[in-house]
């Protein structure tokens, strides 16, 4: 299963490390992005163009924020 991958990670993952501000912010941005995308597409389909475009712009902003969070993450090289 995941043991090989977990063993390759340099730091130990604990419940404490999962609730860091960056992780919580990423989760919240992801939730907002999904709902904004769903409602944005729905508004476009139903003819409320301006609101649909605004919601889709919020979606893009959230995904940009998530990408910025990923850039700051320290990634371990996979063990071969």
Description:
The protein is mainly alpha-helical. Helices cover 74% and strands 0% of the residues. It contains four helices and no strands. It has helices at residues 3-8, 15-18, 21-45, 49-72. Helix 3 (21-45) packs antiparallel against helix 4. The chain starts with a helix and ends in an 8-residue tail after the last helix. The mean pLDDT is 85.
Features:
single chain, 80 residues, mainly alpha, 4 helices, 74% helix
Q: What percentage of the residues does DSSP assign to strands (E)? A: under 5%
Helix content: over 70%
Question: Cα distance, first to last residue?
Answer: 16 Å
Number of helices: 4
The backbone outline, from C-alpha atoms, is elongated
Please mark out the parts with pLDDT under 50 across 5 or more consecutive residues, or reply none.
none
Q: Pairing-aware structural class of the strands and helices?
A: mainly alpha
Biggest β-sheet description: none
Mean pLDDT: 85
Let me know the number of strands.
0
Radius of gyration: 17 Å
